[in-house]
Amino acid sequence: MTNDSRSTVALAGLTAIAVLAVDQATKVAVRASLDPGEEREVLGQVVELVYVRNTGVAFGQLAGNGALVAILVAAAVAGLLWYFFTHLSTPWIWLPAGMVVGGALGNLIDRVGEGAVTDFVKLPGWPAFNVADFSITAGVILMVLIAELHARRLRREARGEG
Questions:
Q1: Which of 4, 23, 110, 119 is the catalytic position?
Q2: Which of 83, 117, 148, 160 could staple 54 via S-S, CB 3.0–4.6 A?
Q3: Is 4 a residue of the active site?
């Protein structure tokens, strides 16, 4: 592994640790200050702080199917890691990889330790979510964007357009 590759992996690891730390700290704060099902307005009716125990995946899908959830999450993380380690030279790939891994670990810790994921941010017309969910979603979007921009750059270079 080259020094650049080691740096990319290290940056992804640091990003994952940062996401995990913020995710777990916010969930601890919510569990300490709210009862399950309790809601508090934060920004009027735009943002609410809630305490929801989610046994499903994103936005409560597959609730109550713990084994299937575990298999799907493991497969998704394995696919992400494969992509990451086969594209270490892609600029900025460490950021979305770290975001997704940190978020996945944050929700995994909840599932193992609490039996459900703690969700706490509620927007109008949207299911409750948490820092890990946001990080996973933003990370996937960012990974697709980075991969597409990198592919476009490589195509331009191959055509001699620099």
A1: 119
A2: 117
A3: no
